Amino acid sequence: MTTENKPNSKAMLKRAHQNMPMGVADSYRxxxxxxxxxxxxxxxxxxxxxxxxxFVDFRIxxxxxxxxxxxxxxxxxxxxxxxxxxxxxxxxxxxxxxVVELIKSMCPxxxxxxxxxxxxxxxxxxxxxxxxxxxxxxxVVVEGGFHGLHDEVMWKSDVDNWNTDAEQDPxxxxxxxxxxxxxxxxxxxxxxxxxxxxxxxxAEHGDDIAxxxxxxxxxxxxxxxxxxxxxxxxxxxxxxxxxLLILDEVKTGFRVAKGGAQELYGIYADLTTxxxxxxNGYPVAAFGGSAKVMDTISxxxxxxxxxxxxxxxxxxxxxxxxxxxxLKDTDALATINRVGKDIQALLSRVFSKFNIExxxxxxxxxxxxxLGSTVPQNYRDWKQTNSELYxxxxxxxxxxxxMLEPDSREPWFICEAHQTVDFVWLxxxxxxxxxxxxxx
Length: 440
Ligand SMILES: Cc1ncc(COP(=O)(O)O)c(C=O)c1O
What we know:
By secondary structure, this protein is an alpha/beta fold. The chain folds into two domains: 38-69 and 331-439, Aspartate Aminotransferase, domain 1, CATH 3.90.1150.10; 72-329, Type I PLP-dependent aspartate aminotransferase-like (Major domain) (Aspartate Aminotransferase, domain 2, 3-Layer(aba) Sandwich), CATH 3.40.640. The protein has helices at 7-17, 72-84, 94-106, 119-134, 195-205, 228-240, 260-265, 291-294, 314-329, 332-353, 379-382, 387-399, 423-439, and strands spanning 39-43, 46-49, 54-57, 112-116, 138-142, 155-157, 172-174, 187-190, 209-214, 217-218, 224-225, 244-249, 271-274, 285-289, 359-361, 366-370, 402-403, 412-413. Helix 2 (72-84) runs antiparallel to helix 9 (314-329). Pyridoxal-5'-phosphate (PLP) is lined by residues 62, 118-120, 123, 146-148, 215, 219-220, 248, 250-251, 275.
């Protein structure tokens, strides 16, 4: 993309290299010298780059845009709050309880909450609360899950370099330098939907497991989902061992259903983290659970400390209040599900035309596309899919004006504004993109 026909992008990357490592403000925005994207505007479900190319966007900022970019219902609420209340004060306002009460009306397991500025911060708060409550250290996580950029959860199963023929588990490696080895000690990693592995971990470490921390639908691993039985098993094992179940709904919360993944499964966590869809792109996050667990946050001896200068600022909370009100009171999520279903059907027609085995994982509002015959049950299964062909297909889609992450581990995210997409055009572009991918 950032080739000779993208002179502005090229110039911006050159300038940015003088100012930021890798020329970007977030390492994952660097897509190489040729492909790094610089935007000039966003609206609805579209983004326009600084060279004037417009894309229909299915990446939507890694998921937060649930209604559409620059949705007036949300932006006006934020403008009103900063004009008439203020942005930040370091004190409480009625917005705090307004937002919690809205969430409680959608998520029946939540009794008390605290706010945060990002998913990372919400997870840190939930894990610290779980440790304070249980007085234990270890956290069980699932391979392929992602819980933000804080040292303790920046260890991953190296499925990329895993030899599927060898009878060994994938190596657990840090995301990169600067992550102390000691942060690995309190984490145990298991494959999703593997009952025996879960039992084995609890048999070995049960007395010291503070919590299981899991994305019920892995929004960072192709929307590969926990089975109903596995979710029940997680609940039962946590209860039997006096450990807590933390469901990380940073991506699924207020997206896959009004009450998030927990509403779909009918199985509830002790602590839940929320972010992304909760503010339609404004930086707001939260964690919460039962009053008994959340009241561990206190100034009593041994109580958990939580806070932060920007916590529950009025920009974040006015956006959350407006977004959650729309999601609660309108059929926005039903529209999103319908559009997501239609797009999967469209993609399925295209793949079938080329006799490509394919399947979809996860819910219609954030579906994973897997080029293989069976829906992966965990990250190791994902390795069996044709992710190289997917990436070639995705790169051609991007060149033709359809933006998405060119990695099948990132789902397609749908927002309400996607109902305006020209599906005939999209199908034609998808067909051309797959034809070109198969030739390359
Ligand atoms: C499930 C999950 N948890 C936590 C995070 C971290 O959120 P943030 O990037 O807002 O810090 C992410 C980010 O993608 C996520 O998907």
